[in-house]
Specification:
This protein is mainly α. Helix content is about 70%, strand content about 5%. The chain folds into two domains: about 5-90 and about 185-230, no CATH class; about 100-170. It is built from six helices and four strands, in the order βββαβααααα. The strands form two sheets. Strands 1-2 form a two-stranded antiparallel sheet. Helix 1 crosses helix 2 and helix 4 crosses helix 6 (about 150-245). The longest helix has about 100 residues, at about 150-245. It starts with a strand and ends in a 5-residue tail after the last helix. Pfam families: DUF1003.
Length: about 250
């Protein structure tokens, strides 16, 4: 396997990783020259070395655009550097194993309290209560009209149900914030990957242009050699004719 020596680190790398510095973007080359001043536009680097400085460039870019990087953005950059997926590392906040018993109970009560099942059951309970005290027990009713005990039960139920619903709403807000944070991290990673793809495409285009120029240069050299060979053949033919006395 053919290898080359990197002008940046002096280490040996496969020739497939060889990158000419003139094919590297100006901003990344400036970062490289800060740590390795001896690197020039005529030097050669390895792709693995160049990727580290692409990572640093992205960090500097986002630090300049959005200020100091948060833990979320650092995690996105780390996953991007390690070529790992991000979605399986995100916590959506919906895993029941991460919730306490009180939180699960609050969610169930809020879900049941906001359903038609609860409304119908509660209406049936009120009608049965009123029917028992008005018609069945008559003068022996335990809660005669105007149903003071029933009003007390309804007031207690409303007093307890309100904080439970608020607890569930707070939980829902936490889940919404977590989903928004996850969406931001995924979008940020997608933007970084798009920028890296642009860098790679630019590198490929420049590399292809360099190969085409080398091929054209080789073809020109071959044409010059053929032209010189033809001139030599023509010169030797003319000399041979003059030597034989041929006036032509």
């Amino acid at each position: 396997m053919q290898t080359f020596i990197s002008d940046m680190s002096g280490k040996s790398f496969p020739s497939s990783e060889k990158v000419h510095c003139r094919n590297v973007s100006k901003n990344i080359l400036e970062l490289v020259r800060k740590d390795h001043p001896h690197v020039t536009p005529k030097s050669h680097l390895a792709v693995s070395e160049l990727n580290e400085y692409r990572q640093k460039y992205l960090e500097h870019l986002f630090a300049r655009e959005i200020g100091e990087l948060t833990e979320m953005e650092k995690m996105v950059l780390e996953k991007l550097k390690e070529h790992e997926t991000l979605t399986d590392k995100l916590d959506g906040g919906d895993n029941p194993a991460n919730l306490s018993y009180g939180q699960r109970l609050a969610d169930k009560i809020a879900t049941f309290g906001g359903s038609w099942t609860f409304i119908i059951m509660f209406l049936v309970f009120i009608l049965v209560w009123m029917g028992i005290n008005i018609y069945w027990l008559a003068n022996r009713a335990f809660d005669p009209y105007p149903f003071i005990l029933l009003n007390l039960i309804l007031s207690c139920l409303a007093a307890l149900q309100a904080p439970v619903i608020m607890m569930s709403q707070n939980r829902q807000e936490e889940k919404d914030r977590q989903r928004a944070k996850n969406d931001y991290m995924i979008n940020l990673k997608s933007e970084l990957e798009v920028r890296i793809l642009h860098e790679k495409i630019d590198h490929l285009i420049l590399h292809q242009q360099q190969d085409m120029m080398e091929i054209q240069q080789t073809q020109l050299e071959m044409l010059n050699e053929v032209n010189q060979a033809l001139k030599k053949i023509a010169g030797s033919t003319n000399n041979h004719k003059h030597t034989n006395g041929d006036p032509a």
